[in-house]
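[Automated response] Your request has been received and processed.

Submitted sequence:
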Amino acid sequence: MDREQDRHRLATALDEARAGLGEGGIPIGAALYGADGRLLGRGRNRRVQGGDPSAHAETEAFRAAGRQRSYRGTTMVTTLSPCWYCSGLVRQFGISRVVVGEARTFQGGHEWLAEHGVDVVVLDDPECAELMRGFIEERPELWNEDIGDE
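Generated structure:
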């Protein structure tokens, strides 16, 4: 995969992150792409909006994709390094590739995924980083709740 295609796919996840922020939620977005490059599902963190602690962006994109016979060859694109919960989802279902918008504001499980055979690309996208940085400054209590840091 080339970086241009990864950045194009990241735009879908960024749209989701912005929508989530506009709804009063946490600005993290994700999209799951098939091996053929087709968008299977997209989602955003809806923990706040739905009162559901499991409604992370990656899980929402995964759920929106619906049941797949296999997840081999699929790519999960996310605006932020996936937390342990979402990293576990990637491993559990054999998602082959993860594209991370940024890992500056949160160091999730992407290195662990890479150590276990998942192809991980960190784009270090400045727009993703700025979106999270601004949110964390404005809503530190909500961010700390989201990452489990009381």
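Summary generated for your ticket: Helices lie at 3-22, 47-50, 57-65, 84-93, 110-115, 126-138, 140-146. The chain is about 45% helix and 20% strand.
If you did not submit this request, please reply to this message.
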